[in-house]
């Protein structure tokens, strides 16, 4: 009973922290929108530099405040759920900035798509965490905590938060582009819409299949029965990481909106994110082959199944020696 009560208390406390922590940025931005007509050096700078303002708010509110809270809690969990929320906030930030100019249909569609993407990823995060706030931090952060030991307190600022600013602001650059040009909605927007929706759907079904697989294996483990070594059904039959593939479709589809508006340079965000997911793929697969019960099955899976892009299985089985 005491343990359950402590768990509920921790969950409520972390939920309250997570809901209150973005208030400094939100209140500052509302104040700016209300008073930007009154000339001042700060309001003029905010008015003429929306992208720099977004970076400044991210640095102060996420990098610094989230980092301090993570240090105090000895758990940098909060950046994970906010990865699913910050793009929505940035989309509305750019859309409501006084200097914004855009096609209403394109803005409305991208905003709605971003909400759909965010809802899917947020649901998947809390489903995976059993609807708890801050129970654990990302396993990669936990590994780095052990690796850097006493230096982790300051390295975490760069490894977790400053790096997240580069990735999150980067992948959201198309939202800035979309709210910087008023151009007629056209074929390329329809194609970008289709790619984004396909990405969200692929990621949803892939994550759902993975969740069901993990849940089933956890039940087998509790019953003392052998666990299934590998997920190779559904979308996972055609790709070792279909969830990552879906996520990449989403971000590259978003970039296509920006490319159509003449902002081809915004590809850097999607490219950095793809490179990061490539590195994460290597880390995940290294973990898989280190687990004794699944190592052999996963090595065969690697040989026969595409890494990201879904494709038919290939056979690597050597032909039998006819002379034997």
TrEMBL record:
Keyword Membrane: yes
GO CC terms, sorted: membrane
Record keywords: Membrane, Transmembrane, Transmembrane helix
Pfam family, one: DUF1295
Source organism, top-level taxon: Eukaryota
InterPro entries cross-referenced by the UniProt entry: UstE-like
Residues spanning the membrane: 12-32, 52-72, 107-126, 152-179, 185-206, 265-284
Name assigned to this protein: Steroid 5-alpha reductase C-terminal domain-containing protein
Source organism: Kalanchoe fedtschenkoi (Lavender scallops)
């Amino acid at each position: 009973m005491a343990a359950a009560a402590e768990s509920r208390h921790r969950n409520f406390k972390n939920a309250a922290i997570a809901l209150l922590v973005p208030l400094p940025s939100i209140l500052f931005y509302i104040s700016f929108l209300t008073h930007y007509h009154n000339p001042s050096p700060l309001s003029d700078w905010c008015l003429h530099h929306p992208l720099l303002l977004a970076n400044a708010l991210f640095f102060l509110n996420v990098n610094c405040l989230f980092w301090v809270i993570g240090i105090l809690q000895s758990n940098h969990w909060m950046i994970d759920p906010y990865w699913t929320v910050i793009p929505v906030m940035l989309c509305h930030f750019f859309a409501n900035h006084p200097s914004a100019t855009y096609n209403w249909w394109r803005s409305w569609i991208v905003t709605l798509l971003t909400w759909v993407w965010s809802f899917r990823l947020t649901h998947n995060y809390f489903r995976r965490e059993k609807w708890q706030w801050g129970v654990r931090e990302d396993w990669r952060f936990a590994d780095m905590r052990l690796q850097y030991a006493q230096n982790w307190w300051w390295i975490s600022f760069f490894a977790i938060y400053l790096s997240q600013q580069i990735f999150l602001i980067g992948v959201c650059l198309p939202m800035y582009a979309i709210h910087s040009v008023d151009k007629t909605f056209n074929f390329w927007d329809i194609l970008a819409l289709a790619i984004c929706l396909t990405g969200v759907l692929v990621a949803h079904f892939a994550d759902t299949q993975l969740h069901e697989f993990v849940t089933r294996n956890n039940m087998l483990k509790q019953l003392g029965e052998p666990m299934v070594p590998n997920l190779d059904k559904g979308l996972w039959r055609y790709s070792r990481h279909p969830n990552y593939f879906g996520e990449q479709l989403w971000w590259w589809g978003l970039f296509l909106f920006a490319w159509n508006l003449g902002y081809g340079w915004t590809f850097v965000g999607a490219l950095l994110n793809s490179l990061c997911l490539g590195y994460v793929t290597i880390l995940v697969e290294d973990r898989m082959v280190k687990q004794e019960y699944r190592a052999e099955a996963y090595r065969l899976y690697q040989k026969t199944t595409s890494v990201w892009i879904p494709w038919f299985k290939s056979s690597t089985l050597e032909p039998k020696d006819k002379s034997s």
